[in-house]
Amino acid sequence: MKPLCLKEFHNAGERFLVDVGELQDAGAKVAGIYCLFAPVELVRAAGAIPVGLCGKKEKPIAHAERTLPPNLCPLIKSSYGYAATDTCPYFSASDFLIGETTCDGKKKMYEFLGRIKPLHLMHLPYSLTQPHALRFWHEEILRLGSFLEQFTGRSIQRDHLQFQIRVHNRIRKLTRKIARFQTEPRVPISGLHMMTVMETKSFFVDPDDYINLLERLITEMEEIVASGFSPFEPDTPRILLTGCPAGNGSEKVLRIIEECGGAVVCQENCTGVKDLDLLVEEEQADPFLALAHRYLQIPCSCMSPNTGRMDLLHRLIGEYHIDGVVDLTWQCCHTYNIESRLTEDFIANTHGLPFLHVETDYSNSDIEQLRTRIEAFLEMAR
Ligand code: SF4
Ligand code: SF4
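That is the input. Now the predicted structure with iron/sulfur cluster docked in place:
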């Protein structure tokens, strides 16, 4: 038993390409984005359509390594490889790109992407708490606004931006409600299916259609919860997956956990719930400042210190009744790799839960080794 509308989430990428093609013929612009720090409300307020371009597959990496050093995280190499080989239809559909100076590898990779398509780079302060960080980021939001106006030829009206803020807050609330069905004692859908649902946040053209789809999923999920159905046995260990972003094509760790008898009930990463609780202040007189304030709170490991991630983990462990935590680091991702030690200490000291740090890439070469480690970890989490 699974939601009937799940198929529409699986097909969201194809649907996006069909719908966006028609709008582009009518003059709309598409903004390729790579990170949660890209303020999608602002993109929409300028009449453009955002689409997520993070590379999640191994195939384009070999080509990327002709230009980029091999010892970079696979997400960066995959993203660049897709662009350099022009093999990603979403990249092809993008009229321009928005990047942010998050980790070192990504910000330098953008210099190469900027040779392929017009790219606007937002400079990110690495602190949540310093007052000048908010001022600086506010300026960067305004600078992006000017770029968008220039590129799309459409001026950003304050009331339209406020409207887009309300729309995207609504989407976040609905998505959060869907994720929270996994807090139920009988988990209604697998972590793999939930990942598919969550990924569609980056692939919709019409927000109203997307809201309608989310609402239909909520209705179906309520029925599944009421029926008491779960794809998992009652004593299945409930796992929280944290760390680097993962998705369709780079889901191997999530898949192995569920194949080995665990249930990934929560993903504290950028595909999952990392930013869903962060809403933009709707009544703020300056909507640009409201955006700056919200986006600066994202608990990414490129921030220092990144205490927001520990606060979030603390809350999620309680809400989702977690039995064990798996921390995924893509190879050569220094920020998440270093932060893993802090995360492990935090989980041990605060919750005393089993913790497994997995460092891997997009290849299948370590599947059996991972399976052995994850099986042993799940025994501890039972
Ligand atoms: S982990 Fe950080 S840098 Fe990577 S996509 Fe998420 S917010 Fe952006
Ligand atoms: S996974 Fe790490 S190294 Fe890779 S892009 Fe994200 S923050 Fe940067």
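The pocket of iron/sulfur cluster (ligand 1) is lined by residues 35-37, 102-103, 245, 270, 298, 300, 302 (CB under 6 Å).
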